[in-house]
Amino acid sequence: MDAGEQFAVELARVSRQWRKRIDERLRHLDLTQARWMVLLQLSRMGAPVSQRELADIVGVEGPTLVRVLDNLERQGLVERRACNADRRVKLIELAQGAGPVIAEIGRIAAGLRQELLEGVPAGELERARELLKIIADRLESGPRG
Length: 145
Known about the structure:
Blueprint (H helix, E strand, L loop, with lengths): L2 H24 L6 H13 L3 E2 H8 L3 H13 L3 E5 L7 E5 L3 H20 L4 H19 L5
Antiparallel strand pairs: 1-3, 2-3
Helix pairs in contact: 1-5, 3-4
């Protein structure tokens, strides 16, 4: 296995295990990975977003997102409303009661991040971030041939 392949394997392993650990720590909030990811994206956006845009951002198919939103709506964490410009479009936004849940997700994620990155020099983290940004930018620019 060459260095690039080893890197890809480790990156996938870290990503999978990190999400698994957060899932375990958020279980008491009745939040699956799909639910907390939607909540975090909505909180970062700060404005209502269409279901289609949200599905693209989160990386799921429309029907999958509908089920996630149904559950979040039942939990009182998101609201759906018709768009004034196009009544066929549903806009999604955080419900008023979502604030404490978002804060708890942030607290738990920060604690895990601190735990996992403890002792790693800031310079190494910055170099790793730069490398991941290069890879992400290439992935987002689309196919290269």
